[in-house]
Design a protein that fits this description.
By secondary structure, the chain is an alpha+beta fold. The chain is built from 13 helices and 18 strands. The protein has helices at 33-37, 46-52, 63-77, 108-121, 134-142, 156-161, 172-180, 194-199, 204-218, 247-267, 300-307, 342-345, 351-365, and strands spanning 16-22, 25-31, 57-60, 84-86, 94-96, 234-244, 270-281, 286-297, 320-328, 331-332, 371-375, 385-389, 410-423, 429-434, 437-450, 474-481, 486-492, 504-511. The strands form 5 sheets. A 6-stranded antiparallel barrel has the order 13-14-15-16-17-18.
């Protein structure tokens, strides 16, 4: 899949190879059919390759582009199976776990034929195989396109016996050593005593690698795959008889998928926090739209309303021939009848309606648009709360009494300084200026003393700055001016505390 550049755009019969810099200079990584017929193969130095094929053209391999192309192909190929893993070893390829998926395409043979037809239509040269184990499928595929499936009644031992040992995905050093012993086919390894085979290798690691790969291919040892992403717990799909060219058709198909998926969730008493719509275009590309919910949902109408904000991002392109919808964050939902009235509900807050509103705002404004204020352990008022994304439930705040320590409903993000024109030592101010307006105090209550959080360091001490000045106590007062406006002010520092000079005054919040 590497784009070789202008040198590869000549005739298909021109010998061409991709090269890569190595310890001994440039070496051939891959070659086309014309070059291979001239004796060019992977591993040759470029000078040796040019000696075998004088008209050889070459270009450096672009592995980053290869990885990106393979990643894109993997996401497209998920239309056949949600479990797709990259093939390990030196070869480039993909594994598909087709268990439970082949019946959607009429069986394994029909599935392989459709996949081959589509890849060929995209101009992607490939070799595929279907087998009971990942190792056997890889060996069949790496041997060439002649036998994509095991024949009826054919066992793994019989199907793999005639394949080269290199298809076991072992190292080149192990292959060379096996060839030196005359072991070129997988079937030749069956009858050799395992201990004797291990003794023929100078390195125990090489021997173990050959035996492990052989056991994995024959199903004697499990081979774990690492899917690009985990399989969804719930998923539905809709094949389109004709490619969809307009968003109206996509919206109609989405409605069908949402109904089916929500019905499956309801049948199991579950709901989903996330939904992913994937649109597979006929040109091999994939478009997708995602929605998030604060709480598990299974109402089709709610999910469709959230998708209305996302469908515009899907471009049908040359046509969409398959739609899939997956559910994520699946969790059980509590079943219960809604209250007949607000009095019977026991509260004025409807968590379900609140979560639905938050979902609509999030879908329109972004994932961080809806936040809630949650408590945090701190004596300093401006540090005693923080904003977190709404997760479907309001924060539980400790009950505040209405006695001498009552706090105002409105607190400023940062305390605002005030100029005190007349004050009583260790008492409330008599007059002060806030936001350029002089104010005369009519009534005052306090103080409520809050000690500095010395264990947090100077930064948490308050508006006085770092160092000793920050580590000062606060005396809070509730005061009311002559106009009836009420404030929550504090004196930062005490007279004679030896921590930074004269105290400073601030207004922290307002009472209603």
């Amino acid at each position: 899949m590497t784009k070789p550049g202008s040198a590869a755009r000549g005739k298909a019969s021109q010998p061409f190879a991709l090269v890569e810099a190595g310890a001994g200079g440039l070496r051939v990584v891959a070659a086309n059919g014309a070059a291979q017929r001239s004796g060019v193969e992977a591993g040759l130095t470029l000078s040796d390759a040019c000696a075998r094929s004088p008209g050889l053209a070459s270009a450096p391999i672009d592995r980053e582009s290869d990885r990106a192309a393979l990643q894109g192909l993997a996401h497209w190929i998920m239309r056949y199976s949600p479990l797709v893993s990259p093939l390990d070893g030196a070869q480039t390829g993909l594994w598909l776990e087709t268990t439970g998926c082949d019946h959607l395409f009429g069986g394994e043979t029909a599935m392989a034929a459709e996949l081959t037809g589509r890849l060929s239509g995209f101009g992607i040269r490939h070799s595929l195989a279907i087998a009971p184990t990942p190792g056997a499928a890889a060996a069949l595929a790496l041997s060439g396109p002649a036998a994509p499936l095991l024949q009826p009644g054919e066992t793994l031992h019989d199907g793999l016996a005639g394949l080269p040992v290199s298809t076991l995905r072992i190292s080149e050093a192990a292959c060379q050593l096996l060839r030196r012993f005359g072991l070129t086919r997988i079937g030749q390894l069956y009858g050799i005593d395992r201990k004797a085979l291990a003794r023929r290798f100078a390195s125990r690691d090489l021997a173990d690698a050959v035996l492990i790969r052989l056991d994995q291919a024959l199903g004697l040892r499990h081979e774990a795959l690492a899917p690009l992403r985990p399989a969804p717990e719930y998923a539905v799909r809709l094949a389109c008889p004709e490619p969809l060219l307009h968003l109206g058709g996509v919206a109609s198909g989405l409605e069908t998928l949402v109904d089916q998926l929500c019905a499956a969730l309801t049948a199991h008493g579950c709901g989903a926090r996330a939904f992913r719509l994937k649109a597979f275009r006929s040109d091999g590309t994939v478009a997708e739209a995602r929605i998030q919910a604060a709480r598990p949902v299974r109402q089709p109408g709610h999910a469709l309303r959230l998708f209305q904000e996302k469908l515009a991002a899907i471009d049908p392109g040359f046509g969409i021939d398959l739609l899939t919808l997956e559910a994520g964050g699946v969790d059980t939902m509590e079943a219960g009848a809604p209250a007949l009235s607000g009095e019977l509900a026991g509260g004025d807050l409807d968590e379900t309606e609140l979560a639905a509103l938050a979902d609509r705002l999030t879908a329109r404004l972004g994932s961080s648009a809806v936040q809630v204020i949650t408590p945090r352990q701190s004596h300093i008022p401006e540090h005693a709360e923080t904003k977190t994304p709404y997760g479907g439930k309001m924060a539980d705040w400790p009950c505040e009494d209405s006695g001498p320590g009552a706090r105002p409903l409105k607190l400023f993000a940062r305390p605002e300084p005030i100029d005190v024109l007349a004050e009583v030592p260790d008492g409330p101010p008599m007059r002060f200026v806030w936001r350029r307006v002089p104010r005369r105090v009519a009534r005052a209550d306090g103080p409520e003393r809050i000690a500095p959080e010395w264990w947090q360091g100077g930064a948490a001490g308050g508006p006085g700055g770092a160092g000793e000045r920050a580590k000062r106590a606060r005396d809070y007062y509730r005061i009311e001016d002559e106009a009836g406006r009420r404030y929550w002010v504090f004196r930062h520092g005490l007279y004679g505390d030896g921590r930074g000079g004269a105290p400073a005054w601030y207004v922290q919040g307002l009472f209603p």
